[in-house]
Design goal:
With about 350 residues, this protein is of the alpha+beta class. Among the domains are: about 50 residues, no CATH class; about 90 residues, Sandwich (Immunoglobulin-like), CATH 2.60.40; about 90 residues, Immunoglobulin-like. It is about 15% helix and about 35% strand. The termini are far apart.
Length: about 350
Amino acid sequence: MDKHVADVKDRHYFEDYYLTKDLAPSGGVLDIHCKAKTDCKGWSESEPAKAKISTNKRHDELVKDFTCLFLPNGFNCSWLPVNPSEKLKVSYRVSGKTKEDIQSLKVCENPYPMNGKCGCELHTDKDREIFVLVETKKRMNTFIAQYAISVPQMSVEESGSFLHLTWTSPNVGQKCTWRTCVWYKECGKEKFPKCFDIKTYERIPVTIPYNKCCRYEFQFNTTTDRHCTEVSSKTSDVITHGTTTPCLDTANVAAIVIPIIVCICVALSFYCFKKHEHIFGSTKLDHSVIKEMFNFNKLPRTRLYVPMEIIDPPAVPSSDHEKDDHQQSSRPQIPARQQD
């Protein structure tokens, strides 16, 4: 860079710090150039100068899923080694560019194995990010630790046709807004997930519709919003509420109950008329009428007969002779008297 600013009397120097994990993809080479903050006539951006950043050990991924759980007196960190047979050294320090911060590198304390993972304890400032260094004899791995909290406790309460969900407040991030996402099943059917933003100091319950005939299964997790350092919890175990039972809605209940009530009323009416015949008079009810009423719908149905209109045949004119013959034939004949 000096050759590009050789004509400048007062030289300015600056320094900055980078995590080596950010330099690993570029092979530890930085392109550095300068440009004016404001548009000045005749000023242009400088040619980039390359700076090589070298390390004593090769960068490589040595661990996965490195998370630090908040504790009252520090952190409990755990990770999954890429090669379980390889011996790792884990160190840490708080973020910062001061000499004191840079020299605050410490070795992780009280290491322990746990269900295929490894862990240790960190004792440092909770309000600052943690830089982690994992190394072997020939390789190294640097990154920022991911924070985590224990899964908050959730309570479920019935309130009429709704369920109220509430959570215990995390013991960190008192000024943060926590985003809690809930996914659940209703009668075995998955419902659309719901996410809610909740302040730490708020105890406002989250409300969802409730069907008393269904069994509910809940799972959730929580994380800070974008205005705070990212802290999240694992997904909770399944929390159940209620049982699945057969239920009838109002329409089905009415369709079943109303006919029963009508039949009972009719039977009581017959009983009252029979018991109080001296008031209503003797009533002889033909049982065949009742039977016919119940069997009416079972009788075969035929089409209704419609009588045809009677049409007289047209009169045909005839001669006088035919009329006389017709009149004679229509007269009664007297039988001839027999001769003795």
